[in-house]
TrEMBL record:
Signal peptide: 1-21
Rax2-like second domain mapped to chain residues: 230-376
Name listed for the protein in its UniProt record: Cellular morphogenesis protein
Keyword Transit peptide found: no
Matches recorded under SUPFAM superfamilies: Galactose oxidase, central domain (SSF50965)
Record bears the keyword DNA-binding: no
């Protein structure tokens, strides 16, 4: 395989960077100045929302899902995703190249990493974020060991173009993929470690070395005399499209398809060619296959027979090499373009294909014949691969008399999907949550098993990119009944893979052949523990059973020691290898851990009949295997972590095997004194992974042990209540307690950590972890007093309700679509509208919810009056009214009145208004916008409708809420309106897809004098109808519009007052914009011709910006920067629909916000200035008064000292002092002296 790696190996040095400090680039604050807007809300369809804080942050990492990512830790403790896969990552290690570069190697069951196609394994450079695929494997990688410059890889996989699994190989950057000397294992490899004596130890579900068996139906393979058809599966050609060239016209002999099910040479069962002509037959199947055996039966009708033929694979058009046994010499011979067919043999003649070539069609050319012409009376093709298809039409041919042919059955209605991008037809179904919970849909595969034995069970899943279902794929539960009377086996498979994949469901399991009423079966059904959607898509393709009985019987039992320094490493009788003999048959070793020189082995096994105490866990020392205290555990051990003298274990156990030490899925074992310790009272579900890392706890860095698995609760103990978690629990050894009990607000409580590696002194975490997202459903408040912050509203789903799937696949929006604030009469109400079902204080609320901030955020709203199928798009409360207008795609009956498109809610009475508007009429009535005309009681309604009651008013209609009457603004407009904006008191700007005065337009202007006009800018310059718009000033001279082009792509343009300007290609293909708005900023950006330096443009929806998906982004005229990320709990990306605010956006006084201290100083200065002015005014008034009254000097005659003293003692009352400042400035009579 070395040559196939040349291009990849040459490219590696340029893709990987020399190790240097891993940097996480923080995104600067956008410096938005939102003071003018007051309270701000954000509406959409999401379960988590976050600011875009770090470069490379992505929506898919906000919430745990079926996919995994590689995370770094930010200094603030948050997890920063570096790259994401489309499925799980099971293992990781760091690989050092000899040129000084280092890469992280990751393995799992993914088909892409960071959007780079990569099957099961890839290299990742954390510095450059480059991903390098390592093509050559097909399947799942479960274990990795980086040992110097060699990577040991284990799992459930095969090399490309191989028909059997090898399950263990090595990779290095000089040679690429290489087989191990012992050629792998016949079962899965789950764990690989290096012992203290430099040997490599493999653990898994294998019983022998050598490649996994290919005797897929379980028949024996005793030698060349064995009938090959008993150990292979017949290919179903009965449903193939069979044609021919130069066929005879003689009745009963011209149809080539008749030889597929033929039992004899005769009319209706034989195909003949024209006399003297060379002919051919072609067959096209509904599935791909790899043929191993061709069987032909000659004809003798009328002295005819075929003597020579060739077989061509289609669509490759390659003639295949075959071998056959010469009947005379009994020797094997080969042929290619001229393969002989004996004319004296009426039985089947067999030809084996030399190479494994995949195909879905073939051609057989007859190039030699005897007698009048050639022909055939039978055709069969066999494969070593035993598939069972979900589409029962392509399973074993019904015309063949097989004892237990492969078959499938379905429950519920599944839709067949053609093999446009995969190798065979498959089935799919789209189900709502209620249908999933009902368990009414399943596909059951019934394989063809001919003999009891060990098998690997594989399931194949088509990739979601080709059929465009990635945002809506779910996960399925598998239940396999493989033995008669045995317990069924169960597992979960995620179907979110980008590209085609297979999962090994069960490895080296015993499978019984059919007997009586029993048949082995594999049942696929949608998993019920899925949320955050209203419908998901599930697919069912095919399963395969690979026998493990044909590999070399090495006497292995789940554990094997390989010494790289020993040339002949195929047989091993080491202490480690022979420790497997202590275990029950078909032991499954799940995990290995090295502590000093001792190896701890955990898994699914018990002691054999000659041993005791080897239950799920044991230890291998230099002198042999040793049981642990209390004879081990009473359930499977799935993960082990060694930390000093303590090993931590996780799995599905609850107690020790004897003495009943209660543990509950997690335990600590001290190797010094051989004692078991419980971790609190344990967890309520199984643990699959354990890793150790450093964590800052109560301002001190501590060692933390993270347990991941299928659990939801840390059990209460020691006076601590049970703590809800989401599959991740962290134990702090120094505190002897769980992190959730120590710090209830701990960040790390949801998701999973499957592995951890150290890269350049920094820990990288692999798994599914929440970022610093705010967990909120559908709407949040954007706080902006100091720093920007997101706060969830008190909106909770009603039991059993989930939001709709991603909106880009919908004609309507879902979740919360719009919102409003109501603060009249000292109320504090937040109103949310859209398409949802929430839990209210007094029952379920449908699509219109009101949160009362003065009453503990109690939620009320619209009940069952209009059902649950409507969607509200528009909300409006007129300034002089306490009535809420709510419009959308709604209809129903309120009291005795039919309503459609618009309803009125009485806010004060907390109920629907007694008088409702007459129903809007038209096809698919929908209201998009509601606005009041400034200074009037007229409410303008815009949308898609023809009339209001009997009044014709297409697109825009006026409702007078005082008189409860509909009015038409003016004639001349028709079509659909999506947005409206008052540009002044008498002119309304309207957007949509309209006709104004017989002119097609996407923008129109209404003059309240009673006239419609098309917008001055040509609509022909816009790519399509306008969906949303906003202004950059309080006039209509600068307008931004967005919509979809006639080709379906989103556009964004600006009206400059003279022409339309395109924003260019800053947003990626497939972006969807629901809302745009110009926002002021406190820090100017570079000048450009699209936006003022003090403004940015906010776009909300589902946006693609480079390699990042975002639900909101900011544009400064040159660059798009993600602003908000939203995600669904199903793992899909979310979307945002609207930013709504307490105050309307204007463009006056958007100055920078002043600090509070400066505001106080300014206020003080103003007050002092006012006092000064008042005093000055008093002095001036007094001066003027004296000038008007005249000035009389005081007498200058001699006065006695007593008189002088009396004058000085006279007091002037206050009324005299200020009387001249009063009205008219007139003097008043003096008050009596006090």
């Amino acid at each position: 395989m070395k040559s196939s790696w040349l291009s990849t190996l040459i490219a590696l040095p340029s893709l990987l960077s020399t190790v240097h400090s891993l940097q996480i680039k923080t995104i600067p604050d956008p410096a938005l100045n939102l003071n003018q807007l007051g309270r701000i809300g954000i509406a959409g369809d999401f379960d988590a929302i976050s600011f875009y804080e770090y470069e490379g942050q992505d929506e898919r990492s906000l919430l745990p899902s079926g996919s995994h990512s590689i995370f770094a830790r930010h200094p603030d403790g948050g997890f920063v995703p570096l790259v994401s896969s489309d499925a799980s990552i099971s293992a990781a290690c760091t690989y050092d190249f000899r040129n000084g570069t280092t890469a992280v190697v990751v393995g799992g069951n993914f088909t892409s990493l960071g959007s780079v196609p990569a099957r099961g394994i890839a290299l990742f450079d954390p510095n450059s974020r480059n991903v390098t695929s390592l093509p050559g494997l097909n399947g799942k990688v479960s274990a990795l060991l980086c040992d110097r410059d060699v990577i040991y890889v284990g799992g459930e996989f095969r090399a490309d173009n191989a028909s059997t699994n090898v399950n263990a190989m090595t990779w290095d950057h000089r040679n690429g993929w290489r087989e191990l000397p012992f050629e792998g294992f016949n079962g899965a490899v789950k764990s690989i470690i290096k012992s203290d004596n430099q040997t490599i130890v493999f653990g898994g579900a294998f019983t022998g070395v050598g490649k996994g068996g290919n005797t897929t139906t379980g028949g024996s393979d005793s030698g060349p005399d064995e009938d090959a058809t008993k150990r292979m599966q017949i290919i179903n050609l009965q449903g193939a499209n069979v044609g021919s060239e130069r066929a005879t016209t003689e009745p009963g002999f011209g149809d080539a398809s008749k030889i597929i099910c033929s039992e004899r040479d005769g009319p209706g069962e034989t195909w003949l060619m024209e006399d003297g002509a060379y002919g051919a037959l072609t067959a096209t199947t509904k599935f791909g296959f790899v043929p191993k055996l061709l069987r032909l039966r000659n004809t003798k009708i009328g002295g005819r027979s075929t003597t020579e033929f060739r077989f061509t694979a289609l669509p490759l058009t390659g003639i295949l090499n075959m071998t056959y046994i010469d009947p005379e010499t009994k020797e094997e011979r080969s042929c290619e373009s001229r393969c002989p067919l004996r004319d004296d043999n009426e039985e089947w003649q067999e030809f084996k294909f030399v190479n494994n070539i995949g195909m879905d069609a073939f051609r057989i050319d007859i190039s030699g014949f005897k007698g009048p012409g050639g022909g055939l009376s039978g055709l069969e093709i066999y494969s070593e691969q035993s598939y069972t298809f979900a589409d029962s039409d392509i399973n074993a041919p019904r015309c063949k008399k097989l004892a237990s042919p492969s078959n499938s059955t379905t429950e519920g209605v599944w839709t067949p999907q053609p093999k446009n991008f995969v190798d065979s037809n498959y089935l799919s179904v789209e189900l709502t949550e209620s249908q999933i919970q009902a368990g009414t849909h399943s596909v059951t595969f019934l394989p063809e098993i001919r003999k009891d034995g060990g098998f690997n069970v594989l399931m194949f899943t088509p990739g979601c990119i080709n059929d465009g279902t990635c945002q809506r794929r779910g996960k399925v539960e598998i239940e396999a009944q493989l033995t008669e009377g045995g317990e069924p086996l169960r597992t979960i498979v995620s179907q979110t893979n980008d590209f085609d994949k297979f999962d090994v469901l069960f490895s080296n399991e015993k499978v019984d052949a059919p007997s009586g009423d029993f048949r082995p079966s594999v049942k696929l059904s949608p998993a019920k523990d899925q949320s955050g959607f209203s419908s998901l898509i599930f697919v069912a393709h095919k399963v395969r059973f690979d026998s493990t009985s044909s590999s070399e019987d090495s006497g292995l039992n789940g554990i094997y020691e390989y010494n790289p320094s020993v040339k002949d490493a195929k047989n091993s009788d080491s202490v480690i290898t022979t420790s497997g003999s202590k275990l029950s048959q078909r032991a499954k070793v799940e995990t290995l851990a090295l502590q000093g020189s001792n190896i701890f082995v955990g898994g699914q096994f018990s002691s054999n009949k000659d041993s005791e105490g080897y239950n799920s866990i044991f230890e291998v020392q230099d002198n042999g295997a040793r049981t642990l205290k209390d004879n081990g555990l009473n359930g499977n051990v799935l993960a082990i972590l060694a930390q000093g003298d303590v090993i931590y274990l996780g799995g599905n156990f609850t107690n020790t095997q004897v003495n009943n030490k209660a543990l509950n899925r997690v335990a600590a074992f001290n190797t010094k004194d051989s004692t078991w310790s419980a971790l609190g009272d344990g967890l309520n579900g199984p643990v699959t992974d354990i890793v150790s890392f450093k964590l800052n706890v109560t301002d001190k860095e501590e060692t933390a042990i993270a347990f991941s698995g299928a659990f939801t609760e840390i059990r209460g103990s020691g006076g601590k209540n049970a703590a809800a978690v989401g599959g991740l629990a962290v134990w702090i050894p120094s505190k002897n307690g769980w992190l959730s009990h120590i710090d209830s607000k701990a960040l790390v409580q949801n998701g999973s950590i499957s592995a951890m590696v150290n890269y350049d002194t920094k820990d990288l975490f692999i798994g599914s972890l929440p970022s610093t997202a705010e967990f909120a459903w559908g709407a949040v408040e954007l706080e902006h007093d100091d720093d920007l912050d997101l706060q969830p509203y008190a909106l909770a789903r009603a039991n059993g309700n989930r939001n709709q799937k991603r909106a880009i696949a919908q004609k309507t929006l879902n979740g919360v679509v719009n919102g409003a604030f109501y603060n009249k009469n000292d109320k504090n109400l937040t109103i949310l509208a859209g398409r949802f079902t929430a839990q209210g204080a007094n029952g379920v609320v449908h699509s219109l919810a009101i949160i009362d901030g003065n009453d503990g955020d109690k939620l009320s709203g619209l009940g069952d009056e209009l059902g649950s199928n409507g969607t509200f798009y528009a909300l409006h409360v007129p300034d002089s009214s306490d009535k809420l207008f709510a419009g959308g795609s709604i209809q129903g009956t309120i009291g005795d009145s039919d309503v459609a498109g618009l309803i009125i809610w009485d806010v004060e009475k907390k109920a629907l208004a007694e008088v409702q508007p007459s129903a809007l009429q038209g096809n698919n009535v929908l209201v998009h916008e509601i606005l009041s005309q400034p200074g009037t009681e007229n409410v303008f309604i815009g949308g898609s409708f023809d009339s209001a009651g009997s009044l014709s008013c297409p697109g825009v209609c006026i409702y007078d809420y005082k008189s409860s009457q509909w009015n038409r603004p003016a004639s001349g407009l028709s079509g659909s309106v999506s947005a409206m904006k008052w540009v002044d008191k008498t002119h309304l700007l309207v957007a949509g897809n309209m006709t104004a005065n017989e002119t097609t337009t996407y923008l129109a202007i209404y003059d309240t004098n009673g006239k419609w006009n098309a917008f001055p800018g040509k609509s022909s310059d816009l790519p399509g109808p306008v969906k949303a718009m906003c202004l950059e000033s309080d006039k209509a001279d600068t307008i931004f519009v967005t919509g979809n082009s006639t080709q379906g792509e989103t556009y964004l343009m600006k009206w400059t007052g003279k022409e339309w300007k395109d924003f260019g290609s800053g947003l990626g293909k497939g972006s969807v914009i629901n809302h745009i708005q110009v926002l002021p900023v406190s820090e100017s950006h570079d000048a450009n011709d699209l936006l003022k330096t003090s403004h940015v443009l906010l776009a909300m929806g589902s946006l693609s910006i480079g390699s990042t998906t975002a639900s909101a982004a900011l544009f400064d005229g040159k660059t798009w920067t993600p602003f908000l990320l939203a995600a669904k709990s199903s793992g899909n990306t979310g979307y945002l629909a609207k930013l709504f605010s307490e105050n309307e956006q204007t463009f006056k006084g958007n100055g920078k916000k002043l600090a509070k201290g400066l505001v106080i100083l300014i206020a003080l200065a103003i007050s002092l200035a006012l006092v000064f002015l008042l005093v000055l005014a008093g002095i001036l008034a007094s001066y003027i008064r004296r000038r008007q009254e005249g000035y009389e000097p005081a007498p200058q005659g001699a006065r006695s000292a007593y008189e002088k003293q009396a004058d000085l003692q006279d007091r002037l009352p206050p009324s005299d002092l200020f009387s001249s400042i009063g009205p008219g400035g007139m003097r008043r009579e003096p008050s009596p002296m006090l």
